[in-house]
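Anyone have tokens for Ribosome hibernation promoting factor? Sequence:
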Amino acid sequence: MRYQISGKQIDIGEALQTHVKAELGEVVEKYAQRPTDAMVVFSRSAHENVCEATIHLSTGLTATAKGHAPEIYAAFEACRERLDKQLRRYKRRLRDHHNRRTAPVEFDGGSSYILAPTEEPEDSEATPLQPIVIAEMETKIPSITVGEAVMQLELGSQKMLVFRNEGHGGVNVVYRRDDGNIGWIDPRNSK
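Reply: yep, here.
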């Protein structure tokens, strides 16, 4: 498993990096046998230390957690406990997906744009609204099943996930509704 351990405007020592690798390796090995990489970022927020961890699994799932504490080791332990809880909660589902999937999840590239309107002139009826692109980034779109997408949405605490449906190859979206349920958009079924 590849580790990327860094600090935002703080120095992290070799002892902390060794501790993080040992503890995360133990947690991940207990619940998921095929992790690919882990990213851990330490930072400060006022008087607290913050630890944010993201673990990518070969099944396409991404588990994320965040921990806060006055001490940096305690912040990591809080983050590690949250990751442990997430992976333990989905252990059976992860094991089922692990057995069915023989190859790692494939990712397609996709562009993401943030659009903002230009300032409206005084005669707003004469000129139509024309947005401009103010930010652009690339993102990876996983090729997974709907069940894996829902699990990814729950593990990552995200509001929305765009994915390529393995069943038919089309682009789908799962999202968290305001009532707490999960919504699924499959443009292929809207015909």
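Helices lie at 14-31, 72-89, 91-100, 146-156.
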